[in-house]
Amino acid sequence: MSFNNLDTLYRQVIMDHYKNPRNKGSLAEGDHLTVDMNNPTCGDRIQLQLQVEDGIVKDAKFDGEGCSISMSSASMMTQAIKGKKIEDAMKMSELFSDMMLGKDVDVEELDLGDIEALQGVAKFPARIKCATLAWKAMEKGVDEDQA
Asked: What sequence ranges are listed for the domain NIF system FeS cluster assembly NifU N-terminal (predicted)?
């Protein structure tokens, strides 16, 4: 597939997650982590809720508003971490951050799925915070929960 076709496909995946977000909403009342974060630079804001049982992310939801990159990334992240051990979700977050910083990341190791569509964000430094907002919220929630 040519670069232009791949770029178009990635844009379509990002816009699909933006227009049809997965896991948008709130978790039912109960025991779950809630983290609010925002990116004051561009106005993106997110509320992330995680239900963690026995060290596994049983459910994840987000709400908020922002650009297509931040909301798509939140949609993709919540899909990717459901059912994962906390350690694996945190490792995925670390590798995603590395990818956003333009470092070489073994995408096969990550099993990125739709998240791979965000690779191109690394070329736009001003948008990296948009893409990583939900991931940083997840890290903050896990850190606070384990403290």
From this structure: 10-130
In whole numbers, what is the pLDDT of the chain averaged over residues?
Answer: 90
pTM surpassing 0.85? yes
Give the Å distances, CA to CA, from 71 to 5, 48, 101, 105: 23, 11, 19, 23
Distance CA 36, CA 65 (A): 12
CA angle 14/40/146 to nearest 5° reads: 80
Are 49 and 33 a contacting pair, CB within 8 Å?
yes
Q: Give 65-78 pLDDT, tens digit per residue.
A: 999 999 999 999 99
Cα–Cα dist 9/111, whole Å: 18
Domains, the chain, ranges and CATH? 3-146 (3.90.1010.10)
Closest alpha carbon to 62 in 85, 35, 43, 80? 35
